[in-house]
Design brief:
This is Putative quorum-quenching lactonase YtnP. Its EC number is 3.1.1.-. One of its GO terms (molecular function) is hydrolase activity. It is an enzyme of class 3 (hydrolase). This protein is α+β, with helices and mostly antiparallel strands. The protein has a single domain, classed as Metallo-beta-lactamase, Chain A (4-Layer Sandwich). It has eight helices and 18 strands. Helix 8 links the parallel strand 15 and strand 16. The longest helix is centred in the C-terminal third of the chain and has 17 residues. It is globular and about 50 Å long.
Length: 304
């Protein structure tokens, strides 16, 4: 197992740290949806088998003595061989090890902000104990999730039952607090319901003085997804994704918000100009990409 180094970013008084979740390969067609491969393949690389690398790195925010976590990756120890194969798992989740590097335990997480409850975001909320029983991994945390998402998690339909799994929500249900459209976790941290990727999908805004960071979660899977019409085939409500992206991308570009990412293998943070086309500022990932750029990506950022 490789040496663990964690990505950090200081935003005012907030310290953001990307914990090490599981890396995975996903069929790129599912992540770019109706966009033709001849177009999207100029922006983002894949393997010869058309698989795209995704990270699933939970983002820890340390602020005023509290430890806030955005999403939870997988708990890879719970996965069967079949699940690992189908999910394209490349590496183990190392969230507990990441926290230990920071002098923390899972019991020290005070709040968890769930953008949505798909398996690659919620699987790490629970674990198997020494008796092989499912328990909460973060027993002292308040877990915030949109009320629509929480309902659909517990009542999956034929499309979503493969990603809304009982093992990921039953042990933590007494910790969950739901909200409708907006939630001020604290004045500087806000969750906003958007729908789209899932019916209860939410984004997260961080505020420090006049500056804002925005986490659009799976509406903007990577830096290449910042076009409103570039929605994934795995979005359950794609027209809602487009509406939400139109609104929030416009606001973010015009007001110089900094984006931060959970899945992108190249960027942790990025800011774009008012057109959304050019990078104004960025922080690249400190580790090497699983699937690097090639000469085929002639629309990749010019500085990479």
């Amino acid at each position: 197992m490789t040496e663990l180094k964690l990505q950090e970013y200081q935003f005012g008084e907030m310290k953001l740290t990307w914990l090490r979740g599981a890396d995975k390969l996903t069929d790129a067609g599912t992540l770019f949806g109706p966009v033709p491969k001849v177009v999207w393949s100029r922006y983002y690389p894949t393997t010869e088998e058309n698989m795209m690398a995704e990270l699933t790195d939970p983002i820890l925010i340390q602020y005023k003595g509290q430890n806030y976590l955005i999403d939870a990756s997988f708990d890879t120890a719970k996965l069967s061989d079949k699940q690992r194969r189908n999910l394209g798992i490349l590496s183990e989740s190392r969230v507990e090890e990441s926290l230990a590097l920071l002098g923390l335990k899972t019991e020290d997480i005070s709040h968890i902000l769930m953008t949505h409850m798909h398996h690659d975001h919620s699987g790490g909320l629970t674990r198997l104990d020494e008796n092989n029983q499912l328990v909460s991994k973060f027993p002292n945390a308040k877990i915030f999730v949109n009320e629509v998402e929480w309902y659909e998690m517990r009542n999956p339909n034929s499309r979503t039952r493969g990603t809304y799994l009982k093992e990921n929500w039953e042990p933590i249900q007494d910790q969950v607090e739901t909200f409708t459209e907006y939630l001020n976790v604290i004045p500087e941290i806000q969750m906003v319901h958007t729908g789209g990727h899932s019916n209860g999908h939410s984004i997260i805004l961080l505020k420090q003085g006049e500056e804002t960071m925005i986490h659009m979660a799976d509406l903007v899977l990577t830096h290449a997804h910042r076009k409103p019409l570039w929605v994934a085939a795995v979005d359950d409500y794609p027209m809602r994704s487009i509406v939400a992206k139109d609104k929030w991308l416009k606001e973010a570009f015009e007001n110089h918000y900094k984006f931060f990412f959970y899945h992108d293998q190249f960027f942790a943070v990025a800011e774009f100009d008012q057109t959304g086309e050019k990078f104004v500022d960025y922080v690249t990932r400190i580790r090497e990409p699983r699937v690097p750029f090639t000469d085929k990506q002639d629309r990749k950022p010019s500085f990479l």
